[in-house]
Sequence to fold (395 residues):
Amino acid sequence: MQRDSIDFSSSDVGKLFRRFLFPTVMGMVFSAVFVITDGIFVGRGIGSDALASVNIVAPLFTLGTGLGLMFGMGGSVVASINLAQGKRRVAEINITQSLVLPALLIALLSALLIHWHEPLLLLLGTPGELMVPAREYLVWFTLFLAPLAVFNILMFIVRLDGAPGFAMACNIMAACINIVLDYLFIFVFEWGLAGAVATGIGYVVGSGVILWYMFRRSRTLRFVKLKISGKSMRLTVRNLWYMSYIGFPALLSELAISSLMIVGNYTFIHYVGKDGVAAYSIACYIFPIIFMVYNGIIQSAQPIISYNYGAGLMRRGRKALRMALGTAALCGAAAFGFTWLCSPWIVGLFLTPDAPAYAIAVQGLPWFAAGYPFFGINVVTIGYYQSIERGRLAT
Fold:
């Protein structure tokens, strides 16, 4: 069997984890930059009402990300185990299945969400005065829900192929495209919330570059042609169901964040009004960075854990888990301390001090950050159980 340039079964676990950690975490952080950049440019270039509107629609971003993480994690775990057992062709079928059909299904979901956007906005708790800008942002952003999910799935595939540095480079490139286009569309062309297409273009270009890599430069894995016979389709559906079973906790985590946003929006609208939603949106913009860091930590450990699980080397997998937990705890404590000390500076990135929402956000953000360390332990533990096919425990 052609082997990956990274030997998951005999190389030092600490060196393996560190080799994946920096590029994976940095790549995930730059993924979160997509969201942060939108918030900064929207808040500074359009206003707090637009910022509140974006936060109302933000659960759709977590939905797209969650679907990508679900199929990406599930496909990567199954493919890792098959690679460890010498079944390279099966692993290639796994990664192809985890990408193609989910992309088609999510594209269909996008069309349905756009068609029923008005009841969806009401369900998300959109107040009447924000209905028009929220509708505009929802339609433009939802057009790119499938590229968002595909981009996240491809990240898992490239890292499994042994190229975490390339995955990081694609994340940085896509984020830079988003930043430049956000500035042009909002400040120069004055497109308003239609500038959401900048984020979509970033995902499309990033996905295109990764696909080029997989077809031209991949080290171990290749996409294969899926058969469309009845037997093959039944097998594909069965495999996707199992991948979804393993990866579902990743989607559930994203849905929990969506619920956090929705309930928070309802609460702040009721007790504080739209300024409260604008202030709360800043916490919701910062949170994806924290979540992506934790995701990056467990995704650094996942191929090590899954490969050694498939090879029957559980002690090596548990060592990778301990390293991931320690890293997550340290990062969580650092993020909490930084937020507590620098809350005015963080809020100032999004709003000017004279904005009504500014004082609310400065006061509330440190309390929101108190949960960061605990959330990190939770995310890493979930990822470990996913990596060893314990989907029920992870859920």
In short: The chain has a mean pLDDT of 88. The chain is about 85% helix and 0% strand.
